[in-house]
Amino acid sequence: MHSDPIQNNPKDPLISILVYNYDKQYLRQCLDSIFNQDILKNFEVILTDDATRDGSWDIALEFLNRYPRRIMVNRNRRVQGPSANLRNCINIAKGKYCASVTNDQAFLPMYIKNCVKSMVLDPNAGFSQVFHKDHPHVPSPSVLNKPLVSILCYNYNYGRYLKQCLESVFAQTYENIELCFSDNASTDDSWDIALEFARQYPEKMNLIRNRKNFGSDANFANCQRSMQGEYAITFCSDDALEPEYVERCVNALEAHPDVGFALVNRAIIDENGRRTEEPPFYNQSCVIPGEEQAGVYMMAGVNPSISQIMYRQAVVGGRSVVGGLAARYYGTRILDFNISTDFDIAYIKEPLLLHRIHSQSDTNQADTNLLPVIGIYVLNHQFADIASVRNLTKVTDRLPQSLDKLARLAVRYSVRMLLANDEHNALRYFHLAMAINPQLAGESAWKQLQEYWTADAPRKAGILEQFASSDNLASRSISYDPPPGSIPIELDGKAFTPSTPLRRATSR
Prior knowledge:
The chain has helices at residues 24-35, 56-66, 82-92, 109-121, 142-145, 159-170, 190-200, 216-226, 245-255, 290-299, 324-340, 362-368, 371-390, 393-396, 399-419, 423-436, 444-452, 457-468; strands at 15-22, 43-49, 71-75, 97-103, 130-132, 149-155, 177-183, 205-209, 231-236, 240-241, 259-269, 275-276, 286-288, 309-312, 344-356, 487-488. The chain is an alpha/beta fold. It folds into 3 domains: 15-144, Spore Coat Polysaccharide Biosynthesis Protein SpsA, Chain A (Alpha-Beta Complex); 145-363 and 484-507, Spore Coat Polysaccharide Biosynthesis Protein SpsA, Chain A, CATH 3.90.550; 380-468, no CATH class. The strands form 2 sheets. Strands 6, 7, 8, 9, 10, 11, 12, 13, 14, 15 and 16 form an 11-stranded mixed β-sheet that branches. A 5-stranded mixed β-sheet has the order 3-2-1-4-5, with helices on both faces.
């Protein structure tokens, strides 16, 4: 008979190495490193396979045949998820101490040995990946200590941008994410690209494809039904994330429990990937009192792209608007406003989102339909109505000022359209500005626009040259101070906890 390589030696306690939900790409390398090391002598391996179909189970059986007295294997009949699998591994383990290895974490035998040595001397000690089996208060693996973030990505025929989009998701420095992807029966190569990523990251990607195009609302609802995260990002499939996007937002939300969502700055990319920087809306990263931010929403959109926000899911319920054109273009703006009437918000000034503007984007189509002005005109009246019920005077008092700013925004859009060689829509925005605020007729920008329509070609060119060089006219060129009561966030993105907890807006 073969001797048992595992000993019951108090001076060399048995260590159970828990391998679960491990990336198949690195599983063989991980197991080789466990069995080929000579630092840990007295160990067993508990391996749980979470109903995989990627070949991971075959690798587990191979090592079982090679080391039958060292390894115990468990295969689920259906997916249970990392938390359940960790509990199962602990229940099966025979060792006094456990060391967990999951996702694509490296097996570090010297680290484990030193952790166990510390726990032998101090029974109350615990580490992120190494813990006493009978101490339930000891931390679980670091990825499980971090809240799950759901990235909701719904797509239709954006295959030309989708690879960059999905690559940016799986390049995040924050590990505990899930991608909830739904394709609306695309006719391009979108589905093939999605399948490629699903094969690479099967444990991080929920995948849905509609049998026909059911519309954007139904497509997004697919993503919502599959999400399980504590935090969520609505991510447009033509955009891309910078690697630290998720980590920076989670840091801010975890440090400030009264914050309803975290908002990042963006940079612009075109259909060829050329990048243009945009000044941050606020000139510093900060936590902003909710009512103050609600007042700002009366004056400006702040976040033109829905991909700029990470929401705390516990505060979203009952505040979102779904269905139809209004929801498509303004549903998130209504949601953001409603959240800010009850919760503070975090702003991160670094451009962590790459927002793509191209001829087929919703943003471009909205611009040509006058929605950035007409829609906001109606929206601001709705915001004022909501605020009046809640007695938020900082919001209602800004309605007249917000309408004046909308008229000036119409002038800016008129200029933008001229600079884009779209005289038809430039003329529409020009007249819309006057309809909202006739007093603009005395201002220089409006007079220049009025002159443009009757000028000869050389004069038109001169006016366009003046517009292109005018600060904050063709596009916003300045950043603003945060509203009163805002608290700075450290530049490295790790939000500090204020000495006096921030209160919800409703308590002010």
